[in-house]
Amino acid sequence: MSPVSHLASRPSPGEPAAAVRTAGLRVRHRRTVALDSVDLDFGPGVHGLLGPNGAGKTSLIRVLATVAEPSGGRVEILGHDIRDHRRRGEVRRGLGYLPQDFGYYPGFTVREFVAYVAWLKEMPADGVPAAVERAVARVGLADRIDAKVRRLSGGMIRRVGIAQAVVNEPPVLLLDEPTAGLDPEQRVEFRELLRELGVSSTVIVSTHLVEDVAAACTEVTLVDAGRVAYRGTPPSLAALGESEGGPGDHPIERGYTAALRAHRASAPGGALR
Amino acid sequence: MNDWHASDHLMTRYADGSLPESDAWSLETHLERCGGCAVRVSRAVRATAAEAVLAEVREAVLAEAPAAAPAPAPERPAAARAHRWPSTGSRAVRVLWALGPAVRGAWLPAVLLVAVGAVALAHGGGFAHARPWLLALAPVVPVAGVALSYGPHADPMHEITAATPAAGLRLVLTRTAAVLAVSLPLLTLAGALLPSTGAPNAAAWLLPGLALTLASLALAGYVGLRAATAVTGGAWLCAVLGPVLTAPGGLTRELGLRLSSYLGGAPAQGGWAAAAVLSAALLAARRPAFHFLEKS
């Protein structure tokens, strides 16, 4: 179908194989195009997904989480095409996903919530209790593990969401706005956790907070109007900001605006949306 | 076992880092099995500048430790768990988890209300025609249960669930089984407790109920669960109640006639059985569609 040769040629010899790849990815919601011809690959590390609201960040994460169906193109996760339904179980066992919004059953405690997701992820039952306690401790909620989820604050519920995402120690972790609702101290702790997770896993984090990207990400992908506007590292984006002089208070913010402007100027019709 | 042990010279060179890498590796392999040499090596390492660094690290770690590890009081969680129902790993809890949102939520009280209400109306209220009405409504009860069991509109945890390997047809079927396991016996039992007044047998709705449920699932592979259940449940209600409401004669008499023709006799029941089998086959064929079952 779509050419994948340009993807195959990308990683240099020493580089680990990409855990997540898209080629010509297209996602449509009714009449609007959320993503268009997106070619990306992500290997181990923390990848920041930046972009204006409505740029397609959540659409991309939901497709990678195998929750939403792409309308075209190819998505490969852990070496398997996600359209191959026989392998989908295998792919999903290797995923961790924090949605932008999620609900819970009213009676659930933190422990039950995370254990329930571990059960859905088909983790071996004997390892679940320990894995749940580990995941909850990782997000700093060990002292609230037997509290009802509905009694927790928004930021804490967000952290419960992160705990369920990491409970199976997934090689591919997809976090949609994980720092929304966290206070500054929790965000600092969370970035620490991100860096730790990024050592062995492929972590894709959508965010609109440039500080998160600067502090925790090894790579940045900028999405605008459904297309990839920029790929690089936080320092390269900051350097772009310094040389192009985009507006902003933070070097990365200046890089962000400069890259967006450059992309909109070059993409035909891109600035119209 | 092994009578080779590291010489002092070797250890000194290992400690100060002047030992070639390959020799150092073999020494390390030996140290993994020889406690005596390990003790001597650590003594040799401590004699170097590393001692100061180690001491510093140790101090730093100890300084952090009380803050970082407020021992997760072992008695408290255990005590908290003891009086809660079974711990999260137990089989009973997993069965509960498999039930899905309908059986855990408002659907279950609704089923109980229908069953108990029918019996109360017949025996307490003296309403003689409770059974035909129950038979007319019963087939849509499991269909409604299925509608409330899976998908973004029914399950608050759907977005998380959909990314897990459990998502898809298997989870839909598990939850459907829970819905059927609750509604089939309950409504049939309630029907049996009602005066018959010429209405079909209390179990006559079982095959239609099953067929409509399976048809909903099969259709869900094309249009999504919510639309599918609306179509099948709505079609049944229209077929049964439509003619009844427009008929000139007595309401209940007409209902009795409708039910007799839809539920009574071997040909009608055979037709429902065939529909159930056909729907199951269609469902199996549409299996992959259930991985992205979120058409609204």
Describe this structure in words.
The complex is a heterodimer of chains A (273) and B (296). In chain A, 38% of the residues lie in helices and 22% in strands. In chain A, the strands form 2 sheets. A 6-stranded mixed sheet of chain A has the order 6-7-8-3-9-10, sandwiched between helices. Chain A has a domain at 15-91 and 207-267: P-loop containing nucleotide triphosphate hydrolases (Rossmann fold, 3-Layer(aba) Sandwich), CATH 3.40.50. Chain A has helices spanning 5-8, 57-64, 88-93, 110-120, 128-138, 154-166, 184-200, 210-216, 234-244, 251-266, and strands at 20-29, 32-42, 45-50, 72-77, 80-81, 95-98, 172-176, 202-206, 219-224, 227-232. In chain A, β1 and β2 form a beta hairpin. Chain A contains 10 helices and 10 strands. Chain A is globular, with a radius of gyration of 19 Å. In chain A, α4 packs parallel to α6 (154-166) and α5 crosses α6. Chain A has 273 residues and is of the alpha/beta class. By secondary structure, chain B is mostly helical. Chain B has 2 domains: 8-68; 91-292, no CATH class. Helices cover 71% and strands 0% of the residues of chain B. Chain B has helices spanning 8-16, 21-33, 35-46, 50-68, 75-82, 91-98, 100-104, 107-123, 130-137, 140-147, 158-161, 169-192, 206-223, 225-246, 251-263, 265-285. Chain A binds chain B through residues 65-69, 85, 88-90, 92-93, 95, 97, 99, 101-105, 111-112, 115-117, 119-122, 125-126, 128-129, 132, 137, 142-143, 145-146, 161, 164, 174, and chain B through 72, 77, 80-81, 84, 87-89, 93-94, 97, 101, 104, 156-157, 159-168, 171, 287-288, 291-292, 294.
